[in-house]
From TrEMBL:
Entry annotated with the keyword Cell inner membrane: no
Protein name: WD repeat-containing protein 55 homolog
Matching PROSITE patterns: WD_REPEATS_1, WD_REPEATS_2, WD_REPEATS_REGION
The WD repeat ranges on this chain: 222-264, 265-296, 477-518, 566-607
GO cellular component: Pwp2p-containing subcomplex of 90S preribosome; small-subunit processome
Lineage: Eukaryota, Metazoa, Ecdysozoa, Arthropoda, Hexapoda
GO BP annotations, alphabetical order: rRNA processing
Domain of life: Eukaryota
Residue span, WDR36/Utp21 C-terminal domain: 707-920
All residue ranges annotated as the WDR36/Utp21 N-terminal domain in the record: 35-299
Keywords in alphabetical order: Repeat, WD repeat
Pfam families, alphabetized: Beta-prop_WDR36-Utp21_1st, Beta-prop_WDR36-Utp21_2nd, Utp21
Amino acid sequence: MNSSHLFQPNRALGYVSNHIPPNVRYIDQRRENVVITCVGRSFHVYGCNSFRLIRTGRIHPANITAIAADGFLTYVAAGNLIYGWRSSVELRKVYRGHEKPVCLLLPFAKHLISVDESSLLKIWIVSTQELYLEIPFAAHTFEISAIVHPASYKNKILLGSAQGGLQLWNLKSCKLVHKFTDFDSKVMQLEQAPALDVIAVGLHSGRIVLLNIQYDQPVIEVHQDWGPVTAISFRTDGTAIMASGSSNGQVVFWDLEEKTIVSTLMAHDDSVTGLHFLPNEPLLVTSSPDNSLKMWIFDLSDGGARLLRFREGHAAPPTCIRYHGASGRNIVSAGEDSSLRIFSTVAETLNCSLGKASYNRKASKKQKKKSEDPFRMPPISYFTSEVTRDKEWDSIAALHQGLVQVTTWSYDKRRMGDLHLVPEAFQNKQHKKDFSVMATCLCLSHCGNFVVIGYTSGHVERFNVQSGIHRASYGAPTAHNDYIRGLSSDNLNQLVVSGAADGLLKFWSFKQPYTTVVKTPIETLDLGDPITLIRTHRESAILCVALDDFTLRLVDLDTRVIVRRFNGHRGTITDACFSPDSRWLITTAQDCVVKVWDIPSSYLIDHFRVSHMCTSLTMSPTGDFLATAHVDYRGINLWANKSLFTNVTLRGLKPESDAPLLDLPTALCDEQQDGIGFPLYNTKQMEVDELENVFEEINLEYNSPPQLSSELITMSNVAASRWQNLLNLDIIKKRNRPRQVLKKPKSAPFFLPTVAGLDFEFDLQATIGDKTSTAGGKIAEGGSRIIESNQVDHLTPFGRLLNAALTTEEYGKAIDHLMKLGPSMIDYEIRNLTPFNSGSGSLPVMGAFMHMIVYMLGQRKEFELAQSYLSLFLKVHGRTIVENEQLSKLLPAIEDAQKAEWSALEDKLLYGLGVVSNLRNFSG
């Protein structure tokens, strides 16, 4: 079984972009520009109006290497295959033929141009997926590095090479049109300028040349001092401005008329790989491998740009994640980029950043190059938070890799606090950043007033979070003889529990009267092996202790005894958490396995394996999601708890058994959560190669037979609104009658034929000599339009079908006709079965209706329709049936059929009610 009993992949948070340049296109139906960014093996689509995630692509079998789009399809290169997507989720085309990974894509009218790493250029016919043309290039002499289609140059493309050369090719004739003068550096970018015949050439040396390709002459040549040219774009809103991106995150704006730098912008912490001016708007979209996408608007007085909208995540993988608050909607995450972020599980627009850890926040803000900030602190390795004092002061305490300082953060104010907590004995103001003692673990008290910190020296210290004043020390001279691995406190601030590498678990009184030193512990437990970490469920007073021998111990804080032992991991345990009701303990280790332990039964009830080691995990306070962070992944993965929405049968598993391998979740947007594109596969992530076969399966819809078995009573698939209110139709019509009196239509002479309908029109096609009649009668022989009364047939279409069934005894057509009608027409048809002018012409038809009801009940099909039709028939024609002897003789047959079918249904209903009642009484 390749699935988990309790968890299934739900979605991923925190992915925005990577090093692949994004694509910007205009969508007519949405009336907005969209940005398509790459996030590894999938891609995201953001709307520029609000930067909301509107689409997420499917999982590809390999990492995406290039993205392009035209007016119909989005082309994605993954490995040596090219996929054409419609609406980001419908796979329409697959182009096969490359033997090397594809690195460049260019839509070209009805064709698609692709270039792989071996400089093999292929041209595909988009509609038929056939190869139109293939041009091989020698990589050692002309390695293609950039490609562009010059405006107004029919059937021609311009190629740039890593050797610095440029070539213009005619694709229709497959000939080299012109070879330009080589540059002295690698061609990084080719971009069409607003002026015809002019192409901007960005080089690895930082030089930008605006080349007139018609005369092979440079028009303008500039040089940026911030590294290679990684992106180029032009404003098209009437301002002669060119923007160029560099490898250090700098964007330079050039005035092409004055040939000078207008301004510079430090846009990203990493190289600028995406740079696009929106058509005819003063808006610039930039992206970077730092996992961010930003939009800048040019509305400052000096013509500079300011940040308008942005989406960003961690630039490096998260190190620690924790749910914050009781709602389960926000996850606080610390990353290797020294930042602390809040991710919303409800909407991506609610994500925010608390900033990056800094020794001096004010000095860091003044730094122009954020990537080279000398005041930046090392990444946060662990943090803890409490919601009790969120509004009053800092509610998050964090420790950093290799530092003795502990920083505080304000969740409410969304920023880093001013406190750097260091014990007085360890303070060395001259060399504070280079200190031999390091903080290794910490915990916040439940009241949010105190933070307890453990150090590699064995010290355990307590500080006040509001003021940063040192309040107490545990142990004399130290709490342990080895470095501290875990700390915890109870709900009432009565105990502090410390665990160290010496294998001892010590229980301390939280505070000692008349002294700031708690010298001796209340009790000590020797666990025999060094302690790896400690996690606590305060409401149930359970302490989880992980040991270096890959085992787990559960300790009761009240009795201070070991109550459970779990073993089964094959690597060092990296994190653990409890479910909200404290029934489950969820652990993960370096063996890449996540295990779920049932605490009451002491059994392993679920486990699954992932491709990359899980570094941190946390369970939602509402129990609906498990969040995990993994090595080399910059996002947070959410796993849905299946026990909340389906019946899950739990059984004990062998701890040493192999766990099934699960794929990590991918990002989803609101529109795709409704199953757009793949209604049968919207809850299951699948590979792209599987999707090619899925389309055929989706078209083969299963059609259920009208009746599974003649022994079963089958209900109708007709909407309830067509039959449920037949008995009360007169009341409904009276309630819904119009307030204004309806105007009578103009009357026409009886000899002028009219067309039936809402509009008053004459039937111009009718002729005096026409012998046909629309009322069932015949025209008199003399050509007169007057219908003879003795030839009038007053039966409705339904009545005629019943009349025909008198001889054939086939009531299927009459039943189908009645099922197609609405409530008003059904009422009309049944009422018109009454005898005409007190005659007996319709009595056989009424008898046929009664036979039809017996037939429907005998077939056990359309059960509720037969009941509804019979009720209306008896209500309307009850007196006529009683007064007529022929019709009265049919009533016993209807009664017997009704009794037989209802008895079978009633027995099943009463049996089910009896079982449910018995179970309810038994459980009570």
